[in-house]
């Protein structure tokens, strides 16, 4: 694996590169980040724009992804005003409304995949943890979910395949298990400067499920402020606080509704800013490590099942070895591989 440390001050594209392709890439990137302030040119008041920004809506795409009811709540007004906003968004984004399948395929070339640190696990995932989607890893305690989260914090900062240059990371910790010192040994493995690695990770501790949701507004604001710089958002773990906050009888429906809202926000963020969203999850019962055909039960029900694009189960095996089993994916075959947890993070068994 390449060991060049990314320089966060580097622009996404080399300035000297003026090929047509590069210009097209930049244009597409700009379309993706059409700022919500453009609405002012279409008669929307700056006060209303500020309200949208305060609610974490920073781009035209972000406003288009939000339903009228929600926009009415944010603006504190009736449908008429919101209809004007929607109309203005359509005008601004009209040229990009419909695209051909080939253009869509071109857009997908902007997707990137982050290495897990294990070639076998990368292969299982079709190349790694993909941007513009949610990847979920679930498994019992000590299965390696947090270790993979830490490893991704480092590998996301390194150049990868398809011209990926590396980027910054946001880590939302709900279980208080983030360890900056753990990043040092992982950075050492890849010959990276641990201090630079740590500086490229923004950390937030979430204290309850509402706080976890609120933090997503800050995430969106950060992704917008430093457009194209952040490449990965980690939530370790997605359900822990929901489990505590909605533990009473008859609270499941309420929990699922709130969870659905949060996951919808996460999905939008991943698409709006072309970032990889990586979440970990717990299971309901312990798994026996030797059984390959155990029934795996991640928590979060159908809401989480539908929101996660790719779901992987981690099972404990002998010593530091672990099994990763692909549980659900839109385009990958069911399969399983072995990897190990080392002082340098997630690695192949024979590394
Ligand atoms: P939980 O559900 O409790 O959060 P988890 O799946 O997040 O569990 P991890 O914390 O990722 O579990 O993995 C714990 C495993 O990682 C333990 O087996 C531990 O021995 C191993 N581990 C932790 N730090 C190191 C290290 N520095 N070197 C090697 N192995 C380590
Ligand atoms: Mg953990």
TrEMBL record:
Biological process terms in GO annotation: chromosome organization involved in meiotic cell cycle; DNA recombinase assembly; DNA strand invasion; mitotic recombination; reciprocal meiotic recombination
Record localization: Nucleus
InterPro entries registered for this protein in UniProt: AAA+_ATPase, Dmc1, DNA_recomb/repair_RecA-like, DNA_repair_Rad51/TF_NusA_a-hlx, P-loop_NTPase, Rad51_C, RecA_ATP-bd, RecA_monomer-monomer_interface
Pfam families: Rad51
Matches recorded under SMART domains: AAA (SM00382)
Keyword field: ATP-binding, Cell cycle, DNA-binding, Meiosis, Nucleotide-binding, Nucleus
RecA family profile domain boundaries: 110-283, 297-351
Gene Ontology CC: condensed nuclear chromosome
Record flagged with keyword Lipid metabolism: no
Ranges for region Disordered: 1-22
An annotated Gene Ontology molecular function: DNA strand exchange activity
UniProt xrefs under PROSITE patterns: RECA_2, RECA_3
Keyword match 4Fe-4S: no
Source organism superkingdom: Eukaryota
Family per similarity comment: Belongs to the RecA family. DMC1 subfamily.
Name of the protein in its database record: Meiotic recombination protein DMC1/LIM15 homolog
Source organism (scientific name): Agrilus planipennis
């Amino acid at each position: 694996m390449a060991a060049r440390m990314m320089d966060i001050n580097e622009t996404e594209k080399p300035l000297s590169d003026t090929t047509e392709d590069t210009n097209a890439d930049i244009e597409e990137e700009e379309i993706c980040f059409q700022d919500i302030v453009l609405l002012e040119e279409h008669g929307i008041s700056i006060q209303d724009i500020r309200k949208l920004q305060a609610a974490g809506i920073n781009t035209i795409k972000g406003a288009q992804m939000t339903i009228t009811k929600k926009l009415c709540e944010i603006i504190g007004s009736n449908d008429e005003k919101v209809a004007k906003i929607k109309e203005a968004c359509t005008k601004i984004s009209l040229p990009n409304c419909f695209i051909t399948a080939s253009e869509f395929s071109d857009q997908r070339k902007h997707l990137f995949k982050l290495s897990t640190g294990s070639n076998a696990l990368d292969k299982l995932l079709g190349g790694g943890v993909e941007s513009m989607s949610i990847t979920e890893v679930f498994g019992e305690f000590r299965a390696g979910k947090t270790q993979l989260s830490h490893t991704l914090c480092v590998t996301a900062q390194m150049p990868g395949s398809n011209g990926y240059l590396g980027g910054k990371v946001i880590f939302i910790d709900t279980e208080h298990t983030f360890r900056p010192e753990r990043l040092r040994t992982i950075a050492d493995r890849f010959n990276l400067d641990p201090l630079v690695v740590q500086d490229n990770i923004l950390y937030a501790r979430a204290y309850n499920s509402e706080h976890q949701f609120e933090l997503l507004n800050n995430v969106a604001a950060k992704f917008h402020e430093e457009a194209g710089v952040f490449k990965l958002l980690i939530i370790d773990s997605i359900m822990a606080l929901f489990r505590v906050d909605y533990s009473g009888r008859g609270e499941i429906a309420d929990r699922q509704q709130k969870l659905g809202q949060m996951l919808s926000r996460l999905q939008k963020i991943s698409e709006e800013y072309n970032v990889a969203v990586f979440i970990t999850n717990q299971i309901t019962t312990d798994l026996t490590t030797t059984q390959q055909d155990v029934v795996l039960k991640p928590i979060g029900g159908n809401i989480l099942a539908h929101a996660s694009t790719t779901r992987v189960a981690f099972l404990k095996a002998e010593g530091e070895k672990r099994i990763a089993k692909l549980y659900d994916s839109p385009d990958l075959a069911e399969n399983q591989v072995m990897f190990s947890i080392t002082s340098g993070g997630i690695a192949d068994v024979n590394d």
